Amino acid sequence: MDEPVTQAEQVEVVELDGDRLSRAELRLIVERKAACVISEEAWIRVHESRRRIEEQVAAGKIIYGVNTGFGKLSDVSIDAEDVGLLQLNLLRADAVGVGEPLPASVVRAMLVLRANALAKGYSGIRAETLQLLVDCLNRGIHPIVPSKGSLGASGDLAPLAHMALILVGEGYAEYEGERLPGKVALERAGLAAVKLGAKEGLALINGTQCMTGVGAIAITEAEHLGLAADMAACLTMEALRGIIDAFSPELLATRPHKELELVAGRIRTWLDGSRRITQQGELRVQDAYSIRCIPQVHGASWQAWGYAEDKILTEMNATTDNPIVLEDGRVLSGGQFHGQPIALAMDLLKIAAAEWANISERRIERLVNPQLSGLSPFLAPNPGLECGLMVAQYAAAALVSENKVLAHPASVDSIPSSANQEDHVSMGTIAARQSREIIANAARVIAIEMICASQAIYLQQAEDDLAPRTRQHLEWVREIIPPLTTDTAISEQIEILAQALLAEAIV
Predict the structure, then answer these.
(1) Cβ 305 vs Cβ 223: under 8 Å
(2) I want to staple 426 with a disulfide (CB 3.0 to 4.6 A). Which of 232, 262, 343, 366 is the partner?
């Protein structure tokens, strides 16, 4: 689990106003434990939103989830003296998540995204409740949130309920490396639980912050994966003496998808100065599709990534509550909590990441198959006595096969809930979790390609002929896994390399 951060280490501060949170700022909070504050303008909106709710309650108006039951029970009126208990009961009843806990990074993302959504001033939350949410984030109190159990509408009820229970001194949290009851965690951090008022439980859990938090992390990991895939392709082209003509800007301009040229331009830049790369007709007329079509296949995945990133950025700064307290005083019920925009985006990201791995595995086969590469079988120094990287290709094939199962769109499924009142749901949280699984698998495949390309370059003693940029990356790969001089177990190195590829962007 993440190590707690001291106040002295929190040198960076991110201001939340509900409208301008960026991926870079989210990473600062999630990874570097930057502190959060709510902007002054946001506090004004929060106070006004709360005032409107209290006025409506005092006037005896019927408002869903404020003085009525939830879901199919929305036609049950709640007495004024019980509106606080109604909100507490909501958290307790909805905390039904199961499975392994979400990692602390995802929980931190959930906390900041929920705080940012509440800062928009449409949810009717009290200032003290929102401040406690921010305090938990800043002091490293990470609620224990089971990973499974959300339908993705009405938002991420179960995960967010587990998150919110900490604020009332219930549930469990990780604090300073210990798993503690919520009340104990708050006390050790010098904080006190709140007693919920009208609508506050609903304001805390009716939203898409679990799927969006997972999705935001997945977007960054997928960005790093795509850059790694482009670099792996460069190493393979160096190893197999690929033809550069297929990456010509004049050629690609005849099919003007900008992502195709972005990939091709990156590869041309990274391969600049190589004495290994060939021209059309020099050694062969055409390369196989897995090399010749890199701009088209990688570029299409980048297109899908761009769509998914846009939807995540929008959702990071959106109100996903119900009902919503409008500035004109109306409190309207709608479907802003429905996760379909994120569900579709995450399903598309799953396919994009799976395709980076699919084409990479085909390049791996070209590297290890002597009939395709002209190199030593399976890149073994002593083939026959040694198997070389034969079974590394098996592992890559298994990973891409698993990804094909995971890539089935979660968003095409819907199971009605709440006695058919909530009769269409998104399954967006499932899609988001699966996207990270696929991305992790794809990173392992890309790592295997880099290892195979490195070995092929080693066997040809071609290091001095590489482009400066690919040679630099090759040296980094070899710090993790040196060239194989005999059969060696490399599973640990594959995993280390894959995690390193996801952690930072190749530039």
Answers:
(1) yes
(2) 343
CB–CB of 428/339 below 8 Å? yes
Catalytic annotation on 172?
Answer: no
Q: Which residues contact 242 (CB under 8 A, 6 or more apart)?
A: 236, 277, 278, 287, 291
Tens-digit pLDDT profile for residues 421-431: 888 999 999 99
CATH fold for domain 7-207: Fumarase C; Chain B, domain 1 (1.10.275)
Residue range 203-258, pLDDT digits in tens: 999 999 999 999 999 999 999 999 999 999 999 999 999 999 999 999 999 999 99
Residue 162 is given by DSSP the state H
Cα gap 444→63, rounded to integer Å: 51
Look-up of token digits 């958290």: 91
Helices (H) and strands (E) in the chain, counts: 19, 9
Integer Cα distance of 396 and 389 in angstroms: 11
> What pLDDT score was predicted for residue 77?
83
- Cα 228 from Cα 235, distance rounded (Å): 11
Q: Which fold has domain 215-320+338-414+427-503?
A: Fumarase C; Chain A, domain 2 (1.20.200)
Going by C-alpha positions, the residue among 430, 433, 434 that lies closest to residue 151 is 430
Which has the closest alpha carbon to 117: 85, 155, 151, 84?
A: 155
| 83-94 vs 157-165: helix crossing angle, rounded to 10 | 110
Q: Cβ(424)–Cβ(416) under 8 Å?
A: yes
Question: What does the pLDDT read at residue 68?
Answer: 87
Q: 269, 219, 226: which is closest to 360 by C-alpha?
A: 226
